[in-house]
């Protein structure tokens, strides 16, 4: 499971790790496709820098995290226990979960290798649609293709879309974290779960 999660994270980064250019975040298909293509191009150009932690941290903080719905993903991990938490506990958990993602991204970004992205079509999205799944195919030399689905959620206030999950070969990054962390919250409380997340750094 750990190797699979690493693979999912690498693909996630490949799709959303360089957003210094202008993108249309009002359409999830346009956003995902443009970001994915630009990111693949940038990673190929700067493979010599992926071992530089400062470079990775800057890349992630400035270009990845603003386009990831960390709070929504964190609340999904908390699950049914959300109603039993205080605002401070939710904020602390979201911060720890975001730090965990940031460190996991930095650890796995260096594992990126040359891959070819096959994008899907850009289509209009009905105004009342809140969640969209954008499909890709990742081609790897000498290996089987990877079917990828990126899930994005529309912010009702801003009308903009952000990513909150990625599914590869029918395995979800978010579901994997729910399976790991939610039982800890249920059994030992959210404070313990926060401690576990921090230990994963």
Outline the structure in words.
The protein has 201 residues and is an alpha+beta fold. It has one domain: Roll (Nuclear Transport Factor 2, Chain: A), CATH 3.10.450.710. 51% of the residues lie in helices and 15% in strands. The protein is built from seven helices and five strands, in the order αααααβββββαα. Helix 3 (53-64) packs across helix 5 and helix 4 packs across helix 5 (87-109). It is globular, with a radius of gyration of 17 Å. Mean pLDDT is 82; it is low at 17-21.
- Percent range of helical residues: 40-55%
What would CATH call the class? Alpha Beta
CATH fold name, please? Nuclear Transport Factor 2, Chain: A
CATH level-4 homologous superfamily: Tgt2/MlaC
Indicate the overall shape: globular
Please indicate the count of domains: 1
Oligomeric description of these chains: single chain
Helix and strand sequence: HHHHHEEEEEHH
| Beta strands, count | 5
Strand fraction equals 15-25%
Average pLDDT rating:
82
Overall structural class, as computed from helix and strand content, comes to alpha+beta
Low-confidence stretches: 17-21
Number of helices: 7
Cα distance, first to last residue?
Answer: 18 Å
Rg, rounded, reads: 17 Å
Please state how the strands of the largest beta sheet are arranged side by side: 1-2-3-4-5
Main sheet characteristics: 5 strands, antiparallel
CATH architecture: Roll
């Amino acid at each position: 499971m750990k190797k699979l999660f690493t693979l999912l994270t690498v693909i996630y980064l490949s799709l959303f790790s360089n957003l210094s250019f202008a993108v249309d975040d009002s359409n999830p298909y346009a956003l995902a496709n443009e970001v994915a293509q630009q990111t693949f191009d940038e990673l190929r150009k700067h493979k010599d820098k992926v071992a530089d932690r400062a470079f990775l941290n800057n890349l992630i903080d400035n270009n990845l995290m603003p386009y990831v719905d960390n709070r929504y993903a964190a609340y999904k991990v908390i699950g049914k226990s959300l109603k039993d938490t205080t605002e401070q506990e939710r904020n602390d958990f979201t911060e720890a979960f975001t730090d965990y993602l940031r460190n996991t991204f930095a650890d796995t970004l260096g594992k990126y290798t040359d891959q070819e992205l096959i994008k899907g079509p850009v289509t209009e999205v009905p105004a009342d649609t809140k969640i969209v799944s954008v499909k890709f195919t990742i081609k790897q030399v000498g290996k089987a293709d990877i079917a990828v689905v990126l899930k994005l959620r529309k912010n009702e206030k801003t009308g903009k879309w952000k990513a909150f999950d990625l599914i590869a070969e029918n395995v979800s990054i978010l579901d994997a974290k729910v399976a790991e962390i939610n039982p800890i919250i249920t059994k030992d409380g959210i404070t313990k779960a926060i401690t576990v997340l921090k230990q994963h750094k």
